[in-house]
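thought: fold this chain, then report.
action: predict
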Amino acid sequence: GTPLALRLAAAAARHLEALERDIGTPAAFDAASCTRTWRLSLSDLGEMAFLPAIADAVLAEAPLTRIVNAAVSTAQLPEALAQREVDLAIGILDAGRRGLRSSSLFSETYVALSDPGRVPRQRSCVALARQGLVVASPTATFHGSVEASLKKAGLDDRIVMRVRHFAAMPDLVRRTALVGIAPQSWASDICRGGDLAWWPLPMPMPQFDVRMVWHGVSEGDAALDWLRATLLRLFRQA
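observation:
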């Protein structure tokens, strides 16, 4: 080839190498100057249990960013992640769909929540059967296995109140002799105030995997790589 053609070929090769390098190594991310809006998907319970700590961790390092909880339904979540309408989701979620990635954050189970002045810890199913139970009935499919565990222990007919959201539960157990059935991570947060107590239920309860889920299309975005790393660090420290 001509000297010009050889020079052009060499320049093209250098450009291609640089491009491959850039794709292979995410650009440095400066959290302090980032002005992005992070779009998360958390349930009502996730918003109460996780969002305060998430906001604290993210805004401490990226104070100019904003956080939106889009709360996408479980059925619509894979598409919302694929279309980048949502950056990531956290919850008891199925990450088996094509293109989805996930990381386990912690294991969750259900416990009892009560006002210890009204209802102390009940150490047997017979004792618990003397109490009225309050459950929240979110649309999540895993909730069915919680009620199945109560039924197996002969306690399903002791459910005297069903509420739509866990947010109603603390005041209900404060003002009645009811026992709430709630996720341990949230119940332990609620009990930090001192007037309520959580205790293990006297029968086996299922364990659930709380996961962070995202789509492969968002990998290599330096800002989202930083967000995922920040949240992984947060939950694994907790």
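thought: worth noting. The chain has a mean pLDDT of 89.
final: tokens above.
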